[in-house]
Amino acid sequence: MSERRPIERTALEQARAIAAGETSAAALFEAQRAAIADRNPQINAFVTVLDAPSAEAVPKRDTAAAASPLAGACFAVKDNIDVAGVPSHSGLRALQALAAQRSAPAVARLEAAGMQCIGKLNMHAVALGATNHNADFGDAFNPERAGYTPGGSSGGSGAAVAAHLCAIALGTDTMGSVRIPASYCGVVGFKPGYDEIPLDGVMPLCRLLDHVGILARSVQDVMAAFACVSDSFVRPGHRAAEAPVTDAVLAIPAQPDALAMSAEVRLAYANALQRLRDHGTTLVEVDLSGYDFGRVRRAGLLLCEAQLLTTLAPTIAARAAELPADLRAMLDFAAGKKPADIARALDTVVAAGHWMRHLLRPFDALLLPTAGQTAFPMNGPVPHDQADFTAMANVAGVPAISLPLPRQPGALPIGLQLIGRRDHDMSLLRLAEHIQPLL
Fold it and tell me: Residue 172 in contact with residue 202, Cβ under 8 Å?
């Protein structure tokens, strides 16, 4: 075992140390709480920190859970995902959230595997935004550079994992809200395929596009957590076993210069592709000109805003003045749209999803930058196209993962995104596990 502090180890390493008697789950929990007390005032990743459960409150685990490779490690949960006994504010005080009666399945399944939930994480209000600016709970910041955004809407999740405040975090991803923070914070972020992880106990943004996702510091941690929470693993026979990925064939854009990205992202992406070529990976150019990145992103955003009008209708009626100005403006924009506008947006998203699934069919994954830019100052201008590359996987309902690319000391993180085929989540994770050391 490495000489790193326990909180700096991966979740699997932490669990192995506990199983070997090198430390205890209680000691790890308290070490994580101490780290949160020390670092959270600067980055504001946590909005709620939980006390350690008493021995009497911990349910007796079955044999499978006791043997879980994650038993004893700590995880945290985005604040729009229910944890029993804790309010889910979803980043908005006007919701006046009450304590949840039961935990969302993803939370309950990690706890059943022996993991310890240590708290709830900051987020962009109602998950509608990619900066994690939050007027009610305070902005969350990137631990890699003071005053910079961690990305959003699962910004607290990305920041907490990057700052070693928890080993694994749950987030939600509707158009990139797990993968963008992973890219900006330099961690791994995985969005499974649609309906792989139940959405019960998660506040909806747009149910057509919503996914629960996992952030961690290694692909192996993500794989272990996904095996705990995914319906494909929890329900035997729910889905046929996937064939192992061998001799992967990966798609790359034929005209990368036509894609909007900063100079540093373009260079890091080109270097990553060259490293893969040097290791013998088969890369095939594909034409992405049939996909209108901006149009699809705008259509998805309108669908989110339109569904929020219904979800937040009681809050709007009773406490409209308490809503943040940016959220109110987006809701007003959607309220001014005609049914035909919403229908066109839906048609755009559905057609783009069909196009993406057809494009991906011959390949094991499509490789793109996760975002076209690195993190930026929280008080600076916000790029309108942050979700252009990530929304592709949501409209198609396919799995996607962001891997951190190598960087020079002091440089901001950049992510490489692998977008896989539908119903091939674990194959994509195995591919990412293979690719990560090559990068």
Answer: yes
Q: Using pLDDT thresholds of 50, 70 and 90, give the confidence band for residue 242.
A: low
Residues 6+ apart with CB under 8 A from 363: 249, 250, 251, 284, 286, 421
Q: Which two tokens mark 419?
A: 């977008």
> Which of the four pLDDT bands, split at 50, 70 and 90, describes residue 140?
very high
pLDDT score for 429: 97
78 as an active site residue: the answer is: yes
Do residues 99 and 142 make contact, with C-beta atoms less than 8 angstroms apart? no
Domain ranges of the chain: 1-439
| Residue 177 designated active-site | yes
Query: Which listed residue (68, 88, 103, 177) is catalytic?
Result: 177
- CATH number at 1-439: 3.90.1300.10
Candidates 153, 154, 183, 218; catalytic one: 153
Our answer to whether residue 120 is catalytic in this structure is no
pLDDT higher than 90, residue 262: yes
Q: What is the DSSP letter of 95?
A: G
Q: Which helix (H) or strand (E) holds 83?
A: none
